[in-house]
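> run fold Exocyst complex component 3
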Amino acid sequence: SCDDNAFLMEQTSREAVNTAVQRVAGMLLRSDQLDKVEQYRRREARKKASVEARLKAAIQSQLDGVRTGLTQLHSALLDVKDIQSSLGDVSNDWRQSINTIESLKDVKDAVVQHSQLASAVENLKNIFSVPEIVSETQQLIEQADLLQAHRKLMELESSRDDLMYEQYRMDSRNTSDMNLISIYFEDVQGLSDELAKQLWMVLQRSMVTVRRDPTMLVSVVRIIEREEKIDRKMVDRKKQTGFIPPGRPKQWKDKMFQVLEGTVSTRIEGTQSVTREEDKMWLVRLLEITRKYVLDDLIVVKNLMVQCFPPHYDTFNRFFGLYHNAVSSRVKELASEELEANEIVSLLTWVLNTYTSAEMMGHPELSSECDINLLEPLLPQDVVGDLLSKYLKTVTSNITGWLRKALETDKKDWQRESEPEADQDGYYQTTLPAIVFQMFEQNLQVAAQINGEFREQVLKLCLKQMNSFLHRYKEEAVNYKEEHLRDRQLPPCYVHYMIAIINNCQTFKESISSLKRKYSPSSEQTDFDAAIERTLNEVAKEGCQFLLDEVFLDLENHLTELLTRKWLTGCHAVDTICVTVEDYFNDFNKIKKPFNQEMTSEALRRVVVEYIKAIMQKRITFKNAEERKEGAERMIKEADQFKFLFRKLSGEDTDRLCGAISAIAEVFKLTDPTLLFLEVTTLVSKYPDIREDHIQALLAVRGDASREMRQMIIGTLSENKVSYSASIQPIFKDITVPTNTMTTMTTMTSMATAKLLK
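> ok
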C-alpha cells in the first residue's frame, strides 16, 4: 500500500507540474506580457499562500474533532464500568431481599383488609340508611321528581357496587358474601327498574311532553347520559379487574331509541280510524292523517325536541329516519292487502308524489335540515310494479265492461222512435263517444297522478281497448242494417241513427287526437293508431254504403223503368229518382265531413252506373232514327238533371260521370251510320274502361248497325285498345252485360278477328 501511495503522489505531482506549465504558457502568449512576469509571480504566490492556510486550518479542525471524540469515548468507557458495578450491587441486594419480601405477605393482606374496612367505614352511613334511602327514592319516583330520585339511586348503587368490588378483590370466589350484599341491596334493582319505566313513559309521550314541560324531557335525557357514563366506567373497570356490578351495563341510551322507535311506529299505525266497510274513502283519510301527523311531529322535533337532546345525538335526522321507516313499514302492510283499483292509485300517488312533496317530507321547514333525495323509496320497485300491474289488470277489466255497457245502451237508443240529438252544428250524434272518452279521460287523469310513464301505459291500454271496441261497434252496425232489411219499417229512425253512427266515427277520431295531445308528449304513431283509423274509416264507409243501399232500395222500381218503351213514351222515373235522392240527402246533410262529400260522390256514381246498366241490359232497341233521336235527347236531358242535382248537393264537378250518359246518347243520336265508328272511338277515348261487350250492347240498342259495321268497330277497337290511368275513377268496369249479349259479342269478335286476319 506504501508503493501505491507513492505512485499516486508522484502522479499527482506530475499533473500539477503539467497544469502549471500550461497556465504559464497561457499567460505568456504575447511578447508584451513578459513585462508582467513579476506581477504574475507575486499573484500566484499569494494564491498559494492562501490555499496553504486553508488546508492547515482544515487539518487542525479535524485533529481537534478527533481529540474531542477520543476524550468522550474514554469518558463513556468509565461510565459503562460504573453502571456495570452498580448492576452487580443491585443484583446482590435483590437476592438478599427475596426472603424479606415473602415475609411481608401478612402486611399486604393487612393493607387489603384496611382498604375494605376504609370502604366499609366510608359507606357505613349509607349502609345503615339503605331502607330509608330506598323509601325516599320510591317517593321521589312517584312524585315524578326523576332527577332527585336518580341521585338517590346512584348513591345506593355506588354503595352496593363499592362493597361488592372490595369483596371481589378480597376473595372473588366467596359467593356467599356476594349474595349477602345482593340480598341487602335487592330493592335497589327494583328502584332502577321503576325509574326506567317512568323514563320510558315520558319518552313515549315525548311529543306532548316537549310542548307542555320540556324540562321533564331534558331531565330524562340527563339521567340517561349519567347512566351511559357509569356504564362506560364499569365496562372499563371490568377490562382491568374482571368485576362488573349486577345490572351493568344498563344500556339505557339504546333502550331510549328503541322506545322512541316504538312510539313513532305506534303513532303511525294508530292513524287508521275507519275501515273500508265503514267508509269507501278510508285509505285517503288514513294517508291524509298520516301526512299531517308526520309533518306536525317533525316540525315539533325540529323546533323543540332538538333542544332537549345533546347535539351528538343528531336528533332531527334520527327522528326523520324513524318516521320514514315507520311510514315505509305501514305502506308495505297496506300494499300487501287486497286493495281496490282506486285505492291502489291513492296509495301510489301518495307514496310516489305526496310523500316527497312540499306538503310532507319536502316541506320548507324540513328541507333545510335534510335531503329528501337521500331517502330510500317507501316501497320497493318490485312492489310498485306489482301494484301497477294489478291496477292495469283491474282497469282493463273495468274498461271492457264499461265499453260493453255503453255499446248496449247505445244500441237501445238506435231503436227509439225519436231522432237522435244533434250537436251545435246540427250533425246527428249519440252519447256513445262522450261516454267512452269521459271514461278514458277519468282513467288517464288518475294515472297522471302517479307518474308520466304510467300515464303512457294507461293511454296505450285505452287505445288497445278502443281498437277492440270498434270491431264490436262495426259488427253491431252491420247487425243493425241487417235487422232493418228484415223489416224496413223498423227501427223507425234507422236512417237517422245510421247517420249518427257515421258521425260518431269522426268524433272518435277527434277525441283520440285530443287525448294523445293532452296525455302523450310523443307524437309518434303506434300500431293501435293505424288500426283504429282503419276501423273507423271502415265503419263510416260501410255506414254510408248502408244508407245508399237504403236509397237505391227505394229507387229500385224506378230504375227498372229506365231505357224501356214506357220510359221512351214519357214516364217520370228520373224525376222521381231525383226527388227521392234529394229528399234523402236532406237528412244526409247531417253527416259530418269528409264522409258527406264521399257519400254524395258515391251516390252520383251509383246513379250513373245504374242508368248505364239499364242501357247495357238492352231493355229497348230503337226502331228508327226518330226513336233514337228522341231517346238520345231524353238521355241528355236526364244527364243534365243528374248533373244539376248533384252539383247542388255537393258543389263539385259532375261533368265526367254525367257526361258518360251524354256520350252514349251521342252514339244513339248519330244519324249517319258511316260516322258511327268515329263516335264510338270518341266514347272509348273519354272512358277507356269501356269493354267490347259494352260497345256491342250499345250497337244492339241503337238497332241499325249492320253485322259488318259491328265487326269492323269491334275489331278495330280490339287492335287499338286505350290504356287508362289508375287515378281515373272507372265507370264501366263494374257494369256487366247479360250473358246472351256476352255470347253474341264473343262470336262476333271471333268473326271479326278471323276476317281481319284474312
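The CA atoms of residues 161 and 246 lie 8 Å apart.
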